[in-house]
Amino acid sequence: MRGLGVTGALSFWRRSPRAVEALWDARGMGASSEAIASTLGLPRRSMERYICRCGGLRAQRWASPARMLSYDERLQIKDMLREGRSYRQIASALGRAPSTISREVARGSMEGTRGRYRPARAQQQSWTNRLRPKPLKIPADPVLHAVVQDWLEAKLSPEQIVGRLQREYPNDPRMRVSRETIYRTIYLHARGGLKRELTALTRTGRTIRYPNRRPVSTRGRMRGMVSTWDRPAEALERKVPGHWEGDLIIGKNGASAIGTVVERFSNYLNLVRLEPGQNRVVALREALVPKLVELPESLRRSLTWDQGKEMAQHRQITIESGMKIYFADPHAPWQRATNENTNGLLRQYFPKGTDLSIFSQLDLDQVADEMNRRPRKRLQFATPYETLEEHLLQ
Q: What are the Integrase catalytic domain coordinates in residue numbering (predicted)?
């Protein structure tokens, strides 16, 4: 296959389903385009055009569901018809309904052949019917389409949209849609009908789907740290509010930063602006302490941070705020999973490479307010505001 031209390559994708399956399998395992193209013996650019045309999404597999007649069953129908058996007898032998056999014979018989049943023709027609273009659910329903588009513009993730639909339309099956359906409608915008601009509102802002990649953290260590393993037991659970996780989002060229502090029980978020040009250790303490002091004492139980050196004055922060600080292990972001997830969401507002110094504290407060009004799956799609307010009222 090596040396195929562009036209030949595109034809290959249509005619070689095994190679297509091999492509998506290798891509799902993180193989590079160059490696996949070399293995399949195809031009890399042709393969990448094919992937882009699919929106980075693996084509749906067409395995025959159990409810569909197989080709073997169609051959048996032909043989039993030759033997003179009735539709009811054939249905009993195959474990099918008589009406199924009747419709199958009617569809699979050709005019001009005295109504003789043709299993090969019936099988081909079955596959043709399955492969015909089918409308995606979201653009086919104006009400569902409008709701999904509005929530995407409000920066809700597809998973949050699915949960919120279940919460706000519990008895309306028309408003049921899966997360994957939303992603397919976004990535296949040419067919799906959602605005092309909405791809920029997904967390990654990508126009096609890429395999997940894991970043590698390389932070240094500090002295005098108290390990996250020494936190009280209640901090490990999410039954009591007041336990927070924090980190920095770094801006362009590492010259600017924003502090993010998230409450574990409710996912409530606070953002703090670090003064640009100031020593980052001092800037963090001066920005963070006032935010912590504003909280009720019952919400100042603990703060878990990574081992970034910006927290070198952690003892002073504890003295000034009354909040104990614990440090996660190196290369263990799952010990601050709430904060890590929130920082990923915040990249919708502050993409990598952004100069964060242009944002005022008022700007950050507005972003935090919007985030705190987002429904969350872990909260049964209530919002952080609703969750924390309900607990405080109790």
A: 237-392
